[in-house]
Amino acid sequence: MTQRKIILIGSFLSAVLKHRSVCEDLAEQLTARGWSVAAASRRAAPLGRLVDITKVVFAEGRSARVAQVDLFSGRAFLWAEYAALLLRLFGVPYVLTAHGGGLPDYVKRWPGRARRLLANAAAVTAPSGFLHRELRPLRADIRLIPNGMDLESYRFRVRAPASPTLIWVRSFHQIYNPAMAVDVVERLLPDFPGLRLTMVGPDRGDGTLAAMRELIRARGLDSAIEIVPGVERARIPALLDAADIFINTTNVDNTPVSVMEALASGLCVVSTDAGGLPDLLSDGVDALLCPRGDAAAMASRVESILRSPELAERLSNAARQTALASGWDDVMKRWDALFEEVRPA
Fold first, then answer.
1. What's the distance, Cα to Cα, between the start and end of the chain in Å?
2. Is the pLDDT of residue 5 over 90?
3. Where do transmembrane segments lie in this chain (predicted)?
């Protein structure tokens, strides 16, 4: 009889990056539900990651019931292809889970590879309507399973009225466009001199964090903007609770965990309309959206929240309702049902 053992292939790098991934949360939830979980990889270097994936599949492939493989664009796509090849050699059925706002463009560049990879999977899941829609031309039966979250970790309070306390939570990398947040603050300060922005996130090593520090200093905004890099995941709920407005300045996105955390906390969310964000957020209902790169538009939407307690209250309550659909209890029911359907060849 096949054991309830599962292999998870993804990025288990929270100890290194100070940023916990969705697959690490999934591993924890599966373990709590009686699954034996074998995970890879905890190595950041390419060679180490290759060796780690190989070791795990060779050690656990003969006894694993199923595998789940995260699928991102770029180099991470190669890891998924390699893991899928090993799993097929051992006869382990695998579920591919699409992630990242850059994946649709990547599969358009490599449609043949993407189609083969998806076709050989026992099932394919997507955490957002955006990825579900974008990948369906390659495989019609993609399942929609949102990223899960522990709602109890986030204190919900209604922001009415909203104070000029803003927060930005992402990695410091150019694709998340943190400089736009500085522009937003600079535009708002003349009318709201007490406005403060906290920018939270790990350094992705592309020079963006150092450039942000210099930009803030050059603009004379040191007293209005605080950078808090490398924060442990456990501190995020408290930082969100201390703010009233969440700004998301990204140029590329899908279903960001940080936005879901802000929704769960009841913050008033103002975001760009990049990637899958219009699928996640309903403009004027649970968030306010603006065009990518348009700092003036984002500042205007933040101002509308600060000047209208009624709007702030409506957005705050609706944000929590949106987050409720991603509670782990409901999400794990979908995963359990899918893993029960998948059978070894």
1. 14
2. yes
3. none
Six-digit token pair at 43? 């190595």
pLDDT tens-place string over residues 74-113? 989 999 999 999 999 999 999 999 998 889 999 999 999 9
Residues 308, 246: Cα–Cα separation, whole Å: 16
Its sign, for the CA torsion 298, 21, 11, 142, is negative
CA dihedral 148, 149, 152, 158 (to 10 degrees): -110
At 15, the pLDDT band (50, 70, 90 cuts) reads low
CATH number at residue 23: 3.40.50.2000
Is the model's pLDDT at 220 over the cut of 50? yes
DSSP single-letter state for residue 94: E
Reply yes or no on whether the pLDDT at 254 is more than 80: no
In whole angstroms, what is the distance from residue 280 CA to residue 278 CA? 5
**What is the pLDDT averaged over residues 43-58?**
91
Q: Which domain holds residue 17?
A: 5-148+327-341
Residue 4 CA: distances (Å) to CA of 63, 67, 87, 211, 339: 9, 11, 16, 48, 10
**Three-state DSSP class for residue 331:** helix
- With vertex at residue 225, the alpha carbon angle to CA 221 and CA 229, rounded to the nearest 5 degrees, is 130
Classify burial at 83, counting beta carbons within 10 Å of its beta carbon; exposed 0-12, middle 13-18, buried 19 or more.
buried
| SS3 at position 141 | coil
Peptide bond into 128 cis (omega under 30): no
